[in-house]
Amino acid sequence: MKRQKMGVWAAAVVVMSLGAACSGDSNNRRASNDAGEVDAGVDVGDVGLVEDPQEEPGDLGEPCNLICNLSTCVDEDEGCEGGVCVSHQELGGSYCSRLCVESCAPGYSCQQTEDESGPACVSNSPECGNGTVEFGEVCDGEEGCAEDCLSVEEPVDEPEVSGGTMTMSLYGNEPQTVSGDAPAVRAELSFGRLFFSSSLNAMTFGMDLPVPGASTPLEQYLEIGLVENVGGANCAYDAATMATISAFDAAEQTIAGSAEFTLNCQSSMCGSECSPTIDVELEFDLRWVEVEE
């Protein structure tokens, strides 16, 4: 029989001759647990185990193969860590278990089986929501456990998203603000350079990050680009300025600052429909994500 892997009972192997007991023949029922091969430190007498193990079988409650015509039967099973399989007609199945003296894992009770080959750890009737996993339940009360206790939903790793707040004033008009996760506010670190934009318009910004641990406020070079359609014509603008960085945390991947600049229409893409210049006031408070390179 398979060596047990648990506490003081870990080295004991209990050999049972129970085949006849599960046939329903009362003349062949065993009145006690016969002692089998015993390793040092384990006292297994004619009446069975001396004490319960400190550690329960890892496969307690997992299905095994035993059929009998009594309400509960137990027979040795080398495929179960606890060494025995319990047939339980009320629950409509059989499961790996162990012999016992008086105590069992939560959800199981130490009781004599009807074939009198126990006592063994017999599952209580499953009750979903009581916080104890009984036979037939996959989980009970833990995070991700389904309402019927029959499955566990693995947590989904939500992708990290960028976000923050950006405020812009164009042509001296009233400032407009947008806040939220991308695409409302997008900030991505790619090849060591931060690119950000918002849903306010098609303006994009690019800058190198300050050195980690740098004291603020500080000045950081900022490049800006904008392509917009005016009267059917594409107008392309660009600018470069020094932004004032008011807060920066490399570990938290956050940065905040402001800038004032003038976008100039590129001569090669600046028709009569395009404004020659656009004055912009910018404030930003960003949370960036790293983009795989």
TrEMBL record:
<protein>
    <recommendedName>
        <fullName>Lipoprotein</fullName>
    </recommendedName>
</protein>
<feature type="signal peptide">
    <location>
        <begin position="1"/>
        <end position="20"/>
    </location>
</feature>
<keyword id="KW-0732">Signal</keyword>
